[in-house]
Amino acid sequence: MPIALVTNYLPPYRIPLFIRLAERHEIEVLCFGAGDRYIPEWFRDLDAQLEQAPFPARRLRGPLEALTLGRRYGPLIAPFAGGAVLPATYASARRYGRPFVLWASVWAAPRSPTHALTLPLTRRMYRDADAVIAYGEHVRRFVARERGTANGVFVAPQSVEPDVFGRTVSEAEIAAFRTRHQLPPGPCVLFVGRLVPEKGVGVLLDAWRQVSPPATLVLVGDGPLAAGARATPGARLLGPLPRTELPTAYAVAELTVVPSIPTARFREPWALVCNESMHQGRPVIATTAVGAVAGGLVRDNETGIVIPPNEPPALAAAIDRLLADPALRARLGAAGRTAVAAYTYDSMADAFDQALAQAAARRS
């Protein structure tokens, strides 16, 4: 029987993984198009994504259909997204005796009232899943605590396309980007992401007022804090950019900042911006609330700079340090490029293979 992989959207950074899985298994990707709190606006055209998918994919019509998936599919794979879709998929797997694989991104228990109410069911899914695929070592540790064992937990390292983000960007492209976006001369510091509080944008804008060397803060993205970004001296808000233009944005910048903060509902699962920046050889400043830090990709003074969350003076000091030290930027950028090379789609697909084999063996 085919495998059902349930997810919300088909963002470009997941396509290479799903292609590999379709080559290795009889798999169908089922998209429910919700749970998009952290999905950029330009990822939300699900119909277009399904039309262009180079593997079997279709729309999932919500939790009611998820309850019936065990009738026609063998193993069921589902992530922490989409409200009732995950528990409905789990219930269907158990009703029809199918292997259930949980694709886990959470590495700290949310503290909202809704999560408190659903905690017993969440813990049951962690413990009863036939296998778990974790975003990184930080998620594997959390899942192992919830399950009482690390057995059956496999790490699928978060990846982006090296041919897209690691390509050589010419000086002509850099000059054209600066002209097109009217960037002033001098160094740039880059932020890429949604302009929302949990991404640490407010902290970044406060910190920018304390940065000493002359530089431009370039923000790529959109969101409710856009007005504050526009009003910040020395900051330029470019809005959303096509993904193909992002490598040039990284190449223009001296460094990238990922200042996410923890909230009652949110802890940054990974932050693929770190991978993207590292592929371009640009150092990253990230907080301890970022999954790529907790998962071991961004290591303080080795592959990047790590700072505490929600502390504008610490962020400003880290930016000042990197802007003032080209040799440090070069060392961290080179080490980051080497480290991120191990985060591949083949390794991700291997983790799915192991989880599916474990789940099938446990059910049989």
Describe the protein:
This protein has 364 residues and is α/β, with parallel strands linked by helices. 42% of the residues lie in helices and 15% in strands. It contains 16 helices and 13 strands. The protein has helices at residues 15-24, 46-52, 62-66, 85-96, 113-128, 137-147, 162-165, 171-180, 201-208, 226-230, 246-252, 272-279, 291-294, 312-323, 326-340, 345-363; strands spanning 3-7, 27-31, 57-59, 76-79, 100-104, 131-134, 153-155, 188-192, 216-220, 235-239, 255-258, 284-287, 305-307. It has a seven-stranded parallel β-sheet with strand order 3-2-1-4-5-6-7, with helices on both faces. Helix 10 (226-230) links the parallel strand 9 (216-220) and strand 10 (235-239). Helix 8 packs across helix 11 (246-252) and helix 9 packs across helix 14 (312-323). It is globular. The protein starts with a strand and ends with a helix. The model has no long low-confidence stretch (mean pLDDT 94).
Throw out a few tags for this protein.
364 residues, alpha/beta, seven-stranded parallel sheet, six-stranded parallel sheet, 16 helices, 13 strands, 15% strand, globular
Q: How helix-rich are the residues, as a percent range?
A: 40-55%
Number of helices: 16
Radius of gyration: 21 Å
- Strand tally: 13
Unreliable stretches covering 5 or more consecutive residues: none
The geometry reads as globular
- Biggest sheet record: 7 strands, parallel
N/C terminus separation? 14 Å
What spatial order of strands do you see in the largest sheet? Answer: 3-2-1-4-5-6-7
Report the mean per-residue pLDDT as an integer: 94
- Counting helices, strands and paired strands, the structural category is alpha/beta
The proportion of residues in beta strands is 15-25%
Element order: H for helix, E for strand? EHEHEHEHEHEHEHHEHEHEHEHEHEHHH
